[in-house]
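Aim 2, interim progress. The first record below pairs a target sequence with its structure tokens.
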Amino acid sequence: MFSCCTGFTADTHQYFMKASPVRPGDYIEFVAEIDLIVGLSACPGGDCGDEHSSDKASCFPLLVEVFQNPDFEHNVPPISSYDQNHGR
């Protein structure tokens, strides 16, 4: 029922894929202190409990909520003075 967890083994550096430890109700919260453009992706193979990377693999939606806190104050970083002349 859950997506997969992937990575590389520490000893042999081989790619692995296993069932995710995520459970319903788990979440990750991020706080952005500057404006961002964000992309979100989950395992494209679907549920590791099914036949992986096939039309039979179950896929589940991700809920994304974006909140704006009007009381949050942050310092906008200065625009870079880089003039793009590096290496010329």
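The second target in this work package is listed in the same format:
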Amino acid sequence: MAWELTTWKPFRELAPFREFERMRRDMDRFWDSFSEGGLRRKTEEGGEWLPSLDIAETKNELVVKCEIPGMDPKDIDISLSDGMLTIKGEKKQEREEKEADYHLVERSYGAFTRSIRLPAEVQSDKINASYKNGVLKITLPKSEEAKKKEIKIRVE
């Protein structure tokens, strides 16, 4: 006799609790959206979505990487004001002329805005941005004051 392990869901078979099970699944999907790269809002017309970001800090610079595949770099706007980096853009939905019945649509479209408070002061005149393979990379050199000074400990 073979045994099979399954997840125990005590309320699945109970008719009065079917609504509870649906709500639990909805909440699980909601919380899972945070671990899948951030909360996303999307309407049927396109709406707003939030691209995923990475922010790294080295001794001399901050590096921000933003996943925005399928966009033209001229549709991306980057600004820096009072230590707040803002990335804006709009990803247009591709529409084919021939009629198609979609079974699944997971790609995000519409306008987005991401604003990040930078953890260090940067040299705004030396910021560099590049876009390759759907990833926007912004390199922000730190100001001299923001660079961490290393202090050697003398052993006696």
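The chain has one helix and seven strands. This observation will shape the mutagenesis plan for the next reporting period.
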